[in-house]
Amino acid sequence: MENNRRNFLKKAELIGSTSLLATAAPFTAFAGKETQEVSTNKTSDKPFTLSILQTTDVHCQVHAHDELFWENDKAVFRKTGGYAHLATFLKSYRKKNPNTFLIDTGDIFQGSELSMKTIGKAMIPILNQLEYDLYLPGNWEVIYYKKAMQTLLGALNAPKVCANMYHDLGEGKKGELIFPPYHIWNVNGVKIGFLGYTDPLVPIRQSPNYSKGIIYTKPEENLAHYVDVLKNDEQCAYILMVAHLGLSQQIYLANLPECEGVNYILGKDTHERVRVPIECKYSKVVEPGAFGSFVGKLNLSIENGKVVKLSNGFRFCPPRTTPDATGNIPITNGYIFDMLPVDSIVRTGTITGKQLKDWLEKELNNVFAKEVSERFGGWVIKFKGMQVEFNAFGEKGKRVQKAMVGNAPLDLEKNYKICACERDGDPADMLCRIKGVANAKNTLYTLHGVMRDYLIKNSPVTPTLPMAAKILDAPQTLLTQVTGVNYQFH
Hints:
Helix content: 10-25%
CATH superfamily of the largest domain: Metallo-dependent phosphatases
């Protein structure tokens, strides 16, 4: 393991100004040229390089873990990631270039048993030891509710930014921003502006009570204003948006005129690995993977106070593929927490076939909507006891081509019993984002309990993909919801 780590560090030194770095091996990406005026402050006459490193969606993965790579149309697994490897890499990289700025763009307090058992507090000393320079709250930072989010982020030494999270004063009235909207990094008189936005759909995506007391707004509502502030008032040489919106939404935003003046969107949320920047009308978009398996890197070369050259760096839990001495892959309690971080109560209810069909269409549109602004984070929802065939890129509301419940076609007039997890704050008649559920009630079971009971009775298990959701107009191995741009997940 130590030899592998040393080899990685040697390779990392050799790649110079290339892009997306795995914390086990380097990757090469795009390098381009841009020129921007800088502030009128006194600047250094000597050329120098600024390095901006980005982690995101680490989800509390402290240790190295198995990671999926898609190579030559196959799934390949390698051990990588985790804060332990990241610490070694950062120490080496900062020694090489002291002008290094490390950011994390969210989902740092949710995703493991260690974090859940300590309400996120166990992550604080780890993150502070890594010496981050800036944080953006992600959609999961509200997992322990608003006050805990503020306390946890407040315990981190580095500044936080977010320009679209407001205190809720009641009756839909916005108070002040919870965090500052932007941060400026000033090196030798050269200012780099960081403007932050998180997902405004958090109250819909997460359990509603998690974000109670917070009002989220769309980035485009004040984006142009803050770009103007950073560019003209603050005289920033370069403007970077740190975003937790999902790749589709970030591409959408980068094509809006409100984004003019933003050089790059350093994005996250959908765990995509953008090794070559996606060129949009007003900004470039990147996303550096997840779970600490990758580090995004953007180098800015400064000469005479100008940015003259740059190079850029670049679901739920990591996979488990490493067997133990018995030849089996152990499923630990910690892994259950990785996969299902919230041990929600199982809720049951009754819905009609029409409600089920409408729900399927809505969930598919969330992933594959033609209008990118209608998409939000996540993939096709998983289900059991039903087989569905669909056109991902079909007409809205008409994607489902076939649906079978058990061995019979879905009957729109028939009643069906369903179960799923309770979402904290949902109405009593809502289940898995389905409204108007009849006879909805909580059971005595939780997700973790059901999983443990199953494993006790059935281990060792040999899971196979059930193919419950079959895509008709794209490969079954589709690994991204992004289309129409030069991007491929690997």
